[in-house]
TrEMBL record:
Keyword NADP: no
Domain Thiamin pyrophosphokinase thiamin-binding: 138-201
Gene: tpk
One Pfam family in the UniProt entry: TPK_B1_binding
InterPro entries named among the record's database cross-references: Thi_PPkinase (IPR006282), Thiamin_PyroPKinase_B1-bd (IPR007373), TPK (IPR053149), TPK_catalytic (IPR007371), TPK_catalytic_sf (IPR036759)
Keywords for this protein: ATP-binding, Kinase, Nucleotide-binding, Transferase
BP GO terms, sorted: thiamine diphosphate biosynthetic process; thiamine metabolic process
The keyword Nucleus is assigned to this record: no
Name of this protein: Thiamine diphosphokinase
SUPFAM superfamilies: Thiamin pyrophosphokinase, catalytic domain
UniProt EC number: 2.7.6.2
GO molecular function: ATP binding; kinase activity; thiamine binding; thiamine diphosphokinase activity
Amino acid sequence: MKILVVAGLPSFLPDEAFDFIIGVDRGSLWLTEQKLPLDLAVGDFDSITEKEKCLVKVHAKSFVELAAEKNDTDTEVGLRLAFEQDPKAQVTIIGGMGGRADHLLTNVFMPISEEFKEHCRQVTLLDPQNELTYFPAGSHQIKNDPSYRYLGFVEVGIQKSLAIQGAKYELEAGQGFSHIYASNEFKDDEVSFSFAEGHLIVIRSKDGSPSKNKENIS
């Protein structure tokens, strides 16, 4: 199953079909206003008016209202409900990057949190300029996507064991000099990487206009 989680106010919609769509807080209003399918609306809805919330309730097939004070963000609850819908689902999150820095960082690291790390390979975080995917320890290969020029790597809990082959700038295990490797590129059609512990966030990105690509997180 392919599930789309719409958080905040996305500035685009992926050009692919989804089996189930979750709107998180203001993201559910965006789906309602765009007259797009909304299988589940979830959030505390503190970023929309009562009138707008009523519109969402009418449009959504299911509606879950959360308490304003809670231990999880609305997007974390949305991702949890996605995997309750199907533990093997491939989940794409849009509208999750931009706006408040605390929400941005929570969303970036959420797929490798204790609750979701076993599902990290199933989660993709997207905005118009960036695609974030997540990898557990081991050996992995990724194919070149010509729509993205740059390739970045963010280490989380990796102790100088990261090795990168097939990229413009390669890295040998034990050679690590940073926890974030930015502005790398594909040299050929495939890049391989391996590491012994922790997780790796892989960022494919491209240049673009910030004004056109801005997203707001509710």
